[in-house]
Specification:
Layout lengths: L21 H8 L14 H4 L9 E7 L13 E7 L2 E6 L5 E4 L17 H10 L6 H18 L6
Antiparallel strand pairs: 1-2, 2-3, 3-4
């Protein structure tokens, strides 16, 4: 990070943030009126070196809008939660993945299903489905794929 006269060049923080917080931070840094009806919160206090209350976590989601051959003609729906040094990934139709990024930053050892990590896996798995319906997402994407086929003159990929 860098903001002349406010944040020295090269400033780094270890907290997990989410990109939805960036717009609120930019508005605040420019002295603007806070945005209404927005997700996220300003990360400017954190960038300025102040601790902010909240969870050290973020969510990520990836969905294709086509039926991919490598995904067995299934809509790829992937959701991830990163909480502190833990990362839990759910691939719809495949087994879950759990990584301890403190001990395994390259994500080489999947700890999902290992009894010693059951509490962590359960906690993250239970947080993941919040506001996400993979069946509804797949139905929406299949509808988009059909509409795209019509636009291509009925051809499918």
């Amino acid at each position: 990070m860098r903001w002349p006269r406010h944040i020295p060049a090269g400033t780094r923080r270890s907290e997990i943030i989410n990109l939805v917080d960036l717009s609120a931070a930019l508005v605040e840094a420019c002295g603007g009126v806070p945005l209404t009806d927005k997700d996220g919160r300003s990360l400017l206090p954190l960038a300025l070196g102040r601790d902010i209350a909240g969870q050290n976590e973020t969510f990520s989601e990836y969905c294709t809008d086509v039926l991919l051959t490598w995904a067995r003609k299934v809509v790829a729906r992937i959701r991830m939660i990163r909480s502190d040094h833990w990362k839990y990934i759910r691939y719809n139709g495949c087994g879950p993945q759990l990584f301890d990024l403190g001990a395994d930053p390259d994500e080489m050892v999947n700890l999902a299903g290992v009894s010693r990590f059951a509490e962590v896996e359960t906690r993250l798995r239970d947080r993941l489905p919040e506001d996400w319906d993979p069946v509804e997402t797949e139905n929406h994407i299949r509808g988009r794929a059909a509409a795209k086929a019509i636009l291509r003159g009925g051809r499918s990929r």
